[in-house]
């Protein structure tokens, strides 16, 4: 895969766009306020040992002292072939003492009055592997269930293990090639060498290793792929990335480029407009057809329609052409929106089995560019294509959008007419339950106007029926479904 990365940096947010053939294919977003401390490595100082709690407080230069339990202090243990270990936790006083310096890693962020939770069992993760400096074996994620795949991955990784470097193969490595795993192993070894160098300098005012931010992670994850150019619009971040690539991914140093242009970097390939379109439910196809994408808690559904496309031959060919075009758009939207889990695709019905096979093949070819693991299960008895795509991070919609305060996530609002009838029923209910002289209805502008115009006859009849005055008051801040019936 060849392409270009655009890196847009602001103090509060970093965004990275992957462009292929001039079109946005992936978007990665990280907001500074949501970055935690988990994964950071510090050279901490023991400031207090608590024998009764079998724990110690550690100064890692945060507002609150961090917490280290005896069970989280690494000691050399016998590790079985299956990765299990025999654990025996010694007394905390035999493990650490006040004033002692030791290397620790944050496993839980500070919360409220509690400080960060620490461990001395250091691990450093990359895209496919996790380095375990205190181990010497290779482990495979339990989520990789295929026995032959587990054996293949272990055979690749074992040669990179030694007395000071053990590795765990992550779930994302399923299907990864030998070269990709080699790049990850080499990268992690270089990172660990730098961590040890910083430890020797007794760097205690800042982390000796910080879980890298989005701009650095993207470079790490794209190591080994063909990128024509990486443009960064922040001089500070550019300088940091130059130093990072020179140390860890030298193959990418030559493609880094600082972008000082006055025009926003995301305007170069119409990225901002593409992001807005990626939040739309309806995606237009060049032919005039369109997709409807609905993301729910359980699954994502995609419906294909011919729309304005009438074709040039017959209906069957028109349907086939629309479905083939849709496969390219679907593959791109899944990557761009980062949609994962179960995905149900409702292609336009095709009578020809040959057309069905060709549409499936087209979808598989379009998805082949996707680095995320996926599985396509073909047409079901109902004519639906079922597929899955591994969840790697939050979807674009979940990152950029929140729940609508008016519809509470339903995506629908009751009509003005429906709300008016609810109000009339509520007045009858309240009148039967309580003794009141008159009623005031507070409702949105649209509902109030409807009660005083379209539904005035019904409102007048209700006044006669209950024998009481009903006033309508507009409340501009109310949404369409909100109303209050107040007794006077």
TrEMBL record:
Short name of one Pfam family: RNase_E_G
Family: Belongs to the RNase E/G family. RNase G subfamily.
Cofactor(s) demanded: Mg(2+)
Residue ranges annotated for the S1 motif domain, each copy included: 39-121
Any one Gene Ontology cellular component term annotated for this protein: cytoplasm
NCBIfam families in the cross-refs: PRK11712.1, RNaseEG
GO molecular function, one term: RNA nuclease activity
Protein name per the record: Ribonuclease G
Record keywords, A-Z: Cytoplasm, Endonuclease, Hydrolase, Magnesium, Metal-binding, Nuclease, RNA-binding, rRNA processing, rRNA-binding, tRNA processing, tRNA-binding
UniProt superkingdom: Bacteria
InterPro entries assigned: NA-bd_OB-fold, RNA-bd_AU-1/RNase_E/G, RNase_E/G, RNase_E_G_thioredoxin-like, S1_domain
Gene3D superfamilies documented for this protein: Nucleic acid-binding proteins (2.40.50.140), Ribonuclease E, catalytic domain (3.40.1260.20)
GO biological process: rRNA processing; tRNA processing
Organism per entry: Thalassotalea algicola
Lineage, highest ranks first: Bacteria, Pseudomonadati, Pseudomonadota, Gammaproteobacteria, Alteromonadales
Compartmental location: Cytoplasm
SMART domains: S1
